[in-house]
Amino acid sequence: MKNTLKDYFSIIIWSAIFALSCNLFIVPFNLYGGGIIGLAQVIRTLIVNITGIESNIDLTGITNLLINIPLLLIALKRLNKEFVYKTIVSVIVQTLAFSVMFESSPISDRLVSIIVGGTICGFAVARILVCKASGGGNDIIGMLLTLKNPMISVGKYCLYFNCALYTLCAC
User: With contact defined as beta carbons under 8 Å apart, do 17 and 37 qualify?
Assistant: First the structure.
């Protein structure tokens, strides 16, 4: 019980750090993350550009949540329930933390800010995985694909997804 509470506490802290560092160090330079978060950022940009409506909150968190809801429902039926419950907590915390917008990065150099942000984001995601949870999205899709075909790894799927996402962003 004590380890489970410690895991949930860690998941909450690291999920918030992940989302806030992405919004603080990467988003101010109009760059996108990878995975479902990156897709949510692209959708947010399209919504803002098409509607012209600016918001006081970043829509990335809400979009990420909407994408993750069906994935989490499918995962509840097919994956380890404790993993899914912990992942739900991570996604909810990310939804809230991604809503916080920063006008600029505290680091003015674009490359340094990206390196710092990427390092913090990567470390935060690793800490969430250590707690036997994930940030949702591609981790869930990758795990479900692996169940169907063991030749497909989560890492390969995520790599292909991100290549497609960054190709879309480059266009």
Answer: no
- Model confidence band, residue 66 (pLDDT cutoffs 50, 70, 90): very high
* pTM score: 0.90
Query: Does the structure show a pLDDT above 80 at 160?
Result: yes
* Residues sharing a CB contact under 8 Å with residue 21, sequence separation 6 or more, in sequence order: 116, 117, 120, 121, 124
Residue 161, both tokens: 């997804």
As a whole number of angstroms, the distance between CA 167 and CA 85 comes to 33
Cα 76–chain centre separation: 19
- Using pLDDT thresholds of 50, 70 and 90, give the confidence band for residue 103: confident
Q: Find all residues with CB under 8 Å of 64, minimum gap 6, and list them.
A: 36, 37, 40, 91, 94, 95, 98, 136, 137
Output the six-digit token pair for 10: 């860690």
Alpha helices in the chain (DSSP H): 2-21, 35-51, 60-78, 81-98, 110-130, 138-148, 154-170
In Å, how far are 20, 28, 103, 145, 146 from 53, measured between CA atoms?
A: 23, 18, 17, 37, 40
Average pLDDT over residues 77-82: 94
Q: What is the dihedral of CA 76, 82, 87, 93, to 10 degrees?
A: 120
As a whole number of angstroms, the longest Cα–Cα distance in the chain is 49
